[in-house]
Amino acid sequence: MTATLNRPETGTGRVVWFTGLSGAGKSTLASALRDDLAARGVAVELLDGDAVRENLSKGLGFSREDRDTNVRRIAFVAGLLAKHGVTVLVSAISPYADTRREVLSALPHPTEVFVDAPLEVVTERDVKGLYLKALAGDLPHFTGVSDPYEAPETPDLHLRTDQISVEEGIRQLLAHLGYGA
Ligand SMILES: Nc1ncnc2c1ncn2[C@@H]1O[C@H](COP(=O)(O)OS(=O)(=O)O)[C@@H](OP(=O)(O)O)[C@H]1O
Ligand SMILES: Nc1ncnc2c1ncn2[C@@H]1O[C@H](COP(=O)(O)OP(=O)(O)O)[C@@H](O)[C@H]1O
């Protein structure tokens, strides 16, 4: 199939927003998708929560207000890039359903991807050792343990990363975005 993702009918780019718990697989999937799309010649950019917090959102914490500010900043930049035809991949916990709804509804061609794995699984993965700290009570406001995560009720794509491989996740993402085999 011819790739039409980068310039859909309105001539703008699009935003693919990965939301989910820490360790669910957002960065893994978003960066693999970025590489795949780039190899197809698509103008693609990844706004990853960790990198954003080192730069654009440096100094913000994890209160609801700071998380919402972070998410709105990411959405603002995503919108600017998308306006110029870029496919923007966002990887951020973005735990609040209302805020996700607000920012996604203002973005061109938004796709909400729920990167989902149960708390037991992400705790077991504990990629950064943060769950250990949070469960020990040493990390207040840690999403899923001592802070809320409001799962999307009707995501455009729901990937259970404890049930499918990274490769299968990428296959489903590409198919959903119109890059099916
Ligand atoms: N309290 C608390 N809660 C959640 N996450 C925490 C916290 N403290 C630090 N971290 C690390 O920060 C990363 C999440 O940043 P995000 O910008 O994606 O979060 S948010 O969208 O503003 O909620 C997150 O990265 P990921 O693991 O990639 O999701 C964590 O590594
Ligand atoms: N199907 C899968 N999809 C994505 N990641 C997976 C999957 N299965 C196992 N993993 C692993 O889970 C971890 C997810 O970490 P990461 O991508 O940093 O999560 P997040 O960005 O959501 O915090 C990685 O070590 C990754 O290899």
From TrEMBL:
InterPro entries attached to this UniProt entry: APS, APS_kinase_dom, P-loop_NTPase, Sulf_AdTrans/APS_kinase
Enzyme Commission code(s) on record: 2.7.1.25
UniProt keyword ATP-binding, yes or no: yes
Catalysis: reaction(s): adenosine 5'-phosphosulfate + ATP = 3'-phosphoadenylyl sulfate + ADP + H(+)
Cellular-component GO terms for this entry: cytoplasm
Active site: 94
Pathway(s) of this molecule: Sulfur metabolism; hydrogen sulfide biosynthesis; sulfite from sulfate: step 2/3
Molecular function GO terms recorded: adenylylsulfate kinase activity; ATP binding; sulfate adenylyltransferase (ATP) activity
Matches recorded under SUPFAM superfamilies: P-loop containing nucleoside triphosphate hydrolases
Domain APS kinase: 13-159
One of the protein's GO biological processes: sulfate assimilation via adenylyl sulfate reduction
NCBIfam families assigned to the protein according to its UniProt record, in alphabetical order: apsK (TIGR00455), PRK00889.1 (NF002059), PRK03846.1 (NF003013)
Primary role: Catalyzes the synthesis of activated sulfate.
Stated family: Belongs to the APS kinase family.
PANTHER family according to UniProt: SULFATE ADENYLYLTRANSFERASE
Protein's UniProt name: Adenylyl-sulfate kinase
Organism: Deinococcus budaensis
